[in-house]
Amino acid sequence: MQQDNQKKVSLDRDLGLWSALSLVIGTIIGAGVFVRQSAVLDDAGSTTMGLLAWIAGGILTLTAGLTIAEIASQLPQTGGLYVYMEKLYGKLWGFLSGWMQIIIYGPAMIASLGAYLAILLSDFFGFPSSWNIPLAIGTVIAVGILNLFSNRYGATFAIITTLCKLVPVGALIIFGLFFGKHDAFGQSISEVHATAGNFGVAILATLFAFDGWILVANLGGEIKNPRKLLPQAITYGILAVLAIYLLVSFGVYRAIPAEKIHSLGTSAIPYIANQAFGDVGGKILSIGIIISIVGCMNGKIMTFPRIMYAMARRNQLPFSKTLSYLHPKSHTPIFSTVGELAIVALMIVFANADRLSELCIFTVYCFYVMAFVGVFLLRKRNAGKKRVFSTPLFPITPIVAILGSLFVIVSEIQSDLVGVLTSFVFVIIGIPVFYYQSKKHAGEPDNGPAEEEID
């Protein structure tokens, strides 16, 4: 009887456009906009080229988002990229994209956010550095507990943290635009002229700051009218982040000279806050960054377990029966969430999460390229059928998205071949798991996303 009741439990489809939009913006904007200003400027060589790098990164991300939006409007089920890869290329490719995200990429991203958040909390409250690991695990668990309840709580928290993080962002923009005394265009960095001008590397740095926009697609089964709202959330969310990043960069360049930004490194924005608003301003900015990271972490903790849940429904993972369980009251995948948090905690304690997340960037972009190519495949398969959303300027937009992803892939190969090969190992480990689970559950019904789940 208990098993029959569980079969009737499904994910709540009650997330509207504002919730989805807040998740896109909140999941993208973490600490990157605050700490990467110097890195982008150093690689670009001048403020003009730095602004162009942010624009280029935003445009490439937008082309990617518009391409995926068309796919999402046709395949708006829980699981996002995992579902797209399965529908486009078969179960093995879908499994490998999901495996990589739930075992390494997602947990590593969450763990790195937790580790950085712990450092900020220790600095803010004066805790000893020995507290960093317990603080990191504690904050991850706290946000994770929130996501064990109805998805309305996580979505509401996403809206609140997104609004809160826009306060320090807005303060930086206003101060730079109206009180800055320097020209945002034409400033160069004399100290690094010998190595500057690598515009491609600067774009690469901005692309990493834009990453995370696709994660809202993991909630396709919980969004109202996902065929319409998913494309809107992805498109408007990326446009909003692009505008925010560009305005923040412009404000920073107006506030202090390029040479000063270069010399300060990651401390450039705290320096501006202290100069503009005094010690109180620095504290407020720190609170803003902390809230920004918590909001980013919430988006990732809310979305990655949905991939694990979707895979478990197909019996593709060990302990699938447990991982596919939905709580009868909250209608959330509580064991998938707990399982994901357990991997995160292990990474915080035993691994360098930043390094692991860097390793997986290459693999993620390999799957991105395949997904972008998939928009051509879907148009061929569904020729003559009406689409709720069509990628603008097709085929130029998906071609630009493909070329942008190939740029990331080639750059990663050139800069970190060992890391690239290591990331392949993580993916290959999933192949025997897939075939073992397939053999073990051969003949059983596939509980994957069906059309009745999304109509």
From TrEMBL:
Membrane topology: Multi-pass membrane protein
Record keywords, A-Z: Kinase, Membrane, Serine/threonine-protein kinase, Transferase, Transmembrane, Transmembrane helix
GO MF terms held by the record: L-amino acid transmembrane transporter activity; protein serine/threonine kinase activity
Main location: membrane
GO terms under cellular component: membrane
Subcellular location: Membrane
Highest taxon, organism lineage: Bacteria
Pfam families with a match to the protein in the record: AA_permease_2
InterPro entries assigned: AA/rel_permease1, AminoAcid_Transporter
Coiled coil feature spans: none
Membrane spanning residue stretches: 15-39, 51-72, 92-119, 131-149, 156-179, 199-221, 233-256, 284-309, 356-378, 390-411, 417-436
Name of this chain's protein: Serine/threonine protein kinase
Lineage: Bacteria, Bacillati, Bacillota, Bacilli, Lactobacillales
